[in-house]
């Protein structure tokens, strides 16, 4: 089993739709969790950290479920500019692992 | 402010040749990371340095790969000899906090093609 797994995608959704991604991790000692966004042929950039109590940043909501060992990202009212690959990242100690990413295409 | 700088941006070489990728981290950052990204394997950490010292190189695929950080403002990743399976995008990232991934800023990457 891979350390970090994500929905394979691609997700093709119309503008304005709500879309959710899940990410599961295998190491129960994982301490920190993040979502990164990567545009086509660009570098990854931090989207948001994921806190135990869940957190929201505008149209984006991240949640953590330690018992089931997964994190999620919810995007509301999706925009064309949200089209990208979303990578979840799991960190424990000085180790950190990127998930394979989920590709999102928001269609007009 | 200048971000992480990588060079070259694109490299095409023939199998067996030596390849050197370069990275200049953000000034003041004391951690530097080298990643490789392919469609098949996603983004993989190869090695990272704290204060110019290699901390974890367990991700380096084999002896053909080596990385150095002679000073706080420069690092190299060398592949010798290169093979077609090394074709990938290689990212360098830097961080101001030891090991914290949320503080990492990525460079634009070097797209390597080995023929």
Give an overview of the whole structure.
The complex is a heterodimer of chains A (108) and B (115). By secondary structure, chain A is an all-beta fold. Helix content of chain A is 0%, strand content 57%. In chain A, the strands form two sheets. In chain A, strands 2, 4, 5, 9, 10 and 11 form a six-stranded mixed beta sheet that branches. In chain B, a hairpin with a 2-residue loop joins strand 5 and strand 6. Chain B is globular, with a radius of gyration of 13 Å. In chain B, strands 2, 4, 5, 6, 9, 10 and 11 form a seven-stranded mixed beta sheet that branches. Chain B has 115 residues and is mainly β. The model of chain B has no long low-confidence stretch (mean pLDDT 92). Chain B is built from no helices and eleven strands.
Layout of helices and strands:
The complex is a heterodimer of chains A (108) and B (115).
Chain A: E1 4-6, E2 11-14, E3 19-25, E4 32-38, E5 44-50, E6 55-57, E7 60-65, E8 70-75, E9 84-92, E10 95-98, E11 102-107
Parallel strand pairs in A: 2-11
Antiparallel strand pairs in A: 1-3, 3-8, 4-5, 4-9, 6-7, 7-8, 9-10, 9-11
Chain B: E1 5-7, E2 10-13, E3 19-24, E4 31-38, E5 42-50, E6 53-56, E7 65-71, E8 74-79, E9 88-95, E10 105-106, E11 110-114
Parallel strand pairs in B: 2-11
Antiparallel strand pairs in B: 1-3, 3-8, 4-5, 4-9, 5-6, 7-8, 9-10, 9-11
Summed up:
Chain A is mostly beta strands and 108 residues long.
Relevant terms:
heterodimer, A: 108 residues, mainly beta, globular, B: 115 residues, seven-stranded mixed beta sheet, four-stranded antiparallel beta sheet, 0% helix
